[in-house]
Design goal:
This protein is mostly helical and 194 residues long. It is 50% helix and 0% strand. It has seven helices and no strands. It is globular and about 45 Å long.
Length: 194
């Protein structure tokens, strides 16, 4: 692991692997998984430099990490550490299965003992969405666009639901009606009309 890219905020690569629950890869230094993890670390470093200025990154690095933050600066440093782990995990979700195309049994044994990323396609999509949201929120705080104290405006995401009954049109409105599309076909039973 002599060619490993160093994490920006965690102490070193072994600390990052421990945070990812993948420290078993340290026992197999020639494993393909190490190059995949290194690539994920590189992608995370590049993403930090895309989202934050070099001065912001330096300020975070200059702040001593403490597991018990007592100031906003220390809390932001902790958030930077957590974001780095989440970013690497996010990148590994897309690449982790690739290494088994030509993996030897030593790689597979180490991976099976440590893997935090076993999941079905649906579970991975859910994890990816959750991690992406957490990373975006963290970058908003780390860049100063959002206050750490929670004064950020929350976004409400919604979508429209089309009617279940093809004969029902959105222009039909009845007092005491509902927004749920299945209910219009039950109006005669409920209201005693039609």
């Amino acid at each position: 692991m002599s060619n490993q890219t160093a994490p920006l905020f965690l102490a070193d690569t072994p600390a990052l692997l421990a945070a990812l629950r993948m420290s078993g890869l340290l026992e197999v230094p020639e494993a393909d998984g190490n190059s995949i993890v290194n690539e994920a670390i590189q992608a995370a470093v590049v993403r930090f430099y895309r989202e934050l200025t070099a001065a912001q990154i330096q300020t975070l690095q200059d702040t001593t990490f403490t597991p018990q933050p007592t100031s906003a600066a220390e809390a932001k440093r902790m958030l930077a550490n957590l974001t780095e782990v989440r970013l690497v995990r996010l990148y590994l979700l897309d690449t982790v299965d690739v290494r088994f195309a030509d993996a030897n049994s030593g790689n597979r044994t180490a991976w099976n003992a440590e893997a935090p990323l076993f999941a079905s396609g649906e579970e991975k999509a859910s994890m990816r969405a959750m991690l992406s949201t957490e990373v975006e929120d963290a970058f908003s705080i780390l860049s100063g666009k959002t206050e750490l104290a929670g004064s950020a405006k929350k976004t409400i995401r919604s979508s429209t639901i089309g009617p279940c009954n093809p004969n029902y049109t959105a222009t039909v409105r009845k007092p005491g009606g509902t927004v749920f599309p299945a209910w219009p076909q039950l109006y005669p039973l409920i209201e005693g009309t039609d």
